[in-house]
């Protein structure tokens, strides 16, 4: 069954995988778990850590693309737009860890000295981690430890919150030492392009259920259609309307698995006015019909 992200009205991800008692989320996924082997573009307050277990992933962060191969990883800072995808169609196994900086806030002075300088450093959008560099390898090993704890908890059903917090503190210490010389103490504003792109992305997430045209998407950021298309091409690697359709399909998948609405009702609720066009777009992105998708989910739920 495909994985869908839940987003708030400002397009920030609603983290569904936090541990019971601490804001740390851990997942072991494949790119094939996502439509078109591509994670929906999003951002959040959490720091995201990824380690590639097998295969290759192209990882986009605020207009920059990193190529991650087996053993490599990346750290994405808070509020940076990002997503991973397959460029070749080959699958990729990876560990994804989300750490909300609030877990370090109990000691105010420690938080101000070691956490705030990183999360407020807009120039520090992401750190590529190479398995061939010792300083990077130590962080990659921490990501793998968290992945192993996650699998242990799934098999044994035991709590891992305290162990994960311990690893998270060790990781943050290593990351701070890695980047401290690049921290200027001066906050860098987000670029105008990223601000505009976030506005348009948020507009789509808030209004997908209504009829939307290129004009209205561009107008949400007070720019012309041409610039709108150029920004989507640069930051999303697709047209505004393709991005809109992809998001509508993700919404429909959630409705298919979490409601008893008819296929026609789901199409209309997702922003598609014609059932035939909805079915065509759904098959294009999901490789099955809406009915088959729902039946597959129900079968997996019974097993």
From TrEMBL:
Tell me the ranges covered by the HTH araC/xylS-type domain, including all copies: 198-296
Record keyword Ubl conjugation present: no
Keyword Transcription regulation included in the entry's annotation? yes
Q: Sorted alphabetically, which InterPro entries does this protein's record hold? A: AraC-bd, Homeodomain-like_sf, HTH_AraC, RmlC-like_jellyroll, RmlC_Cupin_sf
Q: Which UniProt keywords apply?
A: DNA-binding, Transcription, Transcription regulation
Domain of life, source organism: Bacteria
SMART domains the record matches: HTH_ARAC
| MF terms in GO | DNA-binding transcription factor activity; sequence-specific DNA binding
Q: Name one Pfam family in it.
A: HTH_18
Instruction: Give the protein's recorded name.
Output: AraC-like DNA-binding protein
Provenance organism? Testudinibacter aquarius
């Amino acid at each position: 069954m495909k994985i869908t992200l839940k987003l708030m009205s400002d397009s920030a991800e609603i983290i569904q995988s936090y541990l019971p008692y601490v804001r740390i989320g851990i997942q072991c996924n494949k790119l094939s778990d996502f439509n078109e082997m591509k994670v929906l573009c999003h951002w959040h307050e959490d720091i995201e850590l990824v380690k590639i277990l097998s295969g290759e992933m192209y990882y986009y962060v605020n207009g920059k693309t990193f190529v991650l191969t087996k053993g490599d990883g990346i750290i994405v800072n808070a509020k940076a737009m990002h997503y991973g995808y397959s460029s070749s169609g080959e699958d990729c196994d990876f560990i994804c860890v989300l750490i909300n900086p609030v877990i370090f806030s109990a000691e105010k002075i420690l938080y101000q000295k070691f956490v705030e300088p990183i999360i407020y450093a807009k120039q520090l959008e992401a750190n590529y981690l190479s398995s061939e560099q010792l300083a990077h390898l130590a962080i990659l090993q921490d990501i793998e430890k968290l992945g192993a704890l996650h699998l242990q908890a799934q098999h044994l059903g035991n709590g891992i919150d305290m162990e994960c917090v311990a690893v998270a503190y060790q990781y943050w210490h290593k990351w701070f030492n890695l980047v401290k010389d690049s921290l200027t103490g001066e906050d860098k504003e987000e670029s105008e392009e990223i601000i505009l792109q976030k506005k348009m992305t948020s507009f789509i997430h808030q209004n997908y259920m209504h009829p939307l045209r290129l004009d209205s998407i561009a107008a949400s950021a007070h720019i012309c259609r041409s610039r709108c298309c150029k920004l989507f091409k640069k930051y999303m690697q697709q047209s505004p309307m393709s991005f809109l359709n992809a998001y509508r399909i993700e919404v429909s998948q959630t409705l298919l698995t979490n409601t008893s609405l008819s296929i026609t009702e789901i199409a209309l609720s997702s922003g598609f006015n014609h059932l035939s066009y909805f079915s065509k777009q759904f098959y294009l992105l999901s490789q099955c019909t809406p009915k088959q998708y729902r039946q597959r989910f129900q079968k997996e739920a019974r097993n």
